[in-house]
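Protein Record: Sequence and Backbone Structure Tokens
======================================================
Tokens: labelled as protein backbone structure tokens, with as many entries as the chain has residues.
Question of interest: how does this chain fold, as expressed in backbone structure tokens?

___
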Amino acid sequence: MRIVAMENEAQTEIEEFSEEDFREIYKCLLTIGFAECVEEEADVEKKKLKLRRARLAMRFLVNLVQRSEKFGSSISHESIDLIESLLVVGEFDKEILILLTKTADFGGYLEFQKSTRYSKLLEKVVDSFYKANQKGDSIENDALAYFSIIFEKDYAILANCYAEMKAQNFAKLLGIFEFLIEENCVNSKIHENNLLFCLNLLELICMDNQSYIKSQEKKYPKSVEERKMATVETIKLLVEIVGEMCSNTQMTSKLNEKATTICCIFDILDTILQTEAIFFEYRQNHEFPSENPPKDEKIRKALLEEKRIEEAKKKQPDRPDQPKPARLKRVEESETLSAISQVFLEFWKNVKDEDYGTIGEIKLNCLKAIANLCELSMENKLASCKNGRMGLLSILQCTTRRPIWFFESYAIQKWAIFCVRQLTEDCLENKEVILNLDQPAQPIMDRQKLLSQFGLKSVLEDEKFKLKPIQE
């Protein structure tokens, strides 16, 4: 093994074998690795010896691949079952991920596509990544290196995985995809088709998702339910990806094309606003959370703070009530958007500790994406007030601070104000929306009481109101 790893002459020796021999070597070494580590052994020393043999076989295979490109590119799709089994065992994740990365670089992913187990193998790699991420293990970087090559070279990887994977597993894969884009840790470009698939999937969810679910509901009820449960996480990741794509020069033309993307983002934002209105009404009659109080101390404190604020409001009758979130007729009339709103509502009703701020995060990312998209083109600004959308009014609703149990970031108000500026800059249509807004029916405060607290009064002189000290 040392000779194969260190000696330059080893490459010549290796490549004298035929492709059929290479495939047998793959199969033999993978089998040795798997057999040695799964065979039961009561004796501790013998068990250690077996694991050592298995690890030697794996490292020998890795050295062969690293020394010879011809050997690396000869991997067979028939090896997938053994590789998948070794990932399940979990003893040789690092060696297997290095093997997958090197063979993918040589085009091995094309061979793997011949196997019906390819998506299952990817699921195991995804699981290895998240396990390593929780432990802070270096295997996380090996998994990222593999996916960076796959997302660059395999133009249909996301589309195929969406069709073949369970919805929750696909959301995890999409999470890795988003992480690579956000952290900019891909040495080479992600294939444009994979980025374009994210835009198409967002459009599918916003415009035709309910039709798809209805068509599959009778045949695959379990699969449909899983897809509904993963909808919130999938939307969250897609919106984040769109925001990151605004800085990708190869995708700006796609983002501006027919302004479809910004319309989808506004649809998601409107759906969240609709859900807030429904959930606000639900909260009037239900103690939240009704059954499972949150374990997280910060969340419990936030809920107690909400009660304290409500009690304080009762002691100040002159203080205006916070405006209630308003329902959106456009969302109620859309079958697909109403269905998404219902998914969001169920998510809020049954929220878990780690997910309290998820929908607030989606809302914030929608605002970021809208601001970035409006900066790209005038067409995106105009799309906000066409086809029944009142984008500017939706943005203005986001400037209002929601009750504390919505767990929204304070950055939402700042981004909403920035979006208003982006939408109205050099856009007469959106400026007219602002000019035509009615004055609020309820004043912000009792003006006379406020003046008296400062020792002032309002006096009419020469048909104009002037402020004077109360003593006069």
Summary: The chain is about 70% helix and 5% strand. The two ends are 100 Å apart (CA to CA).
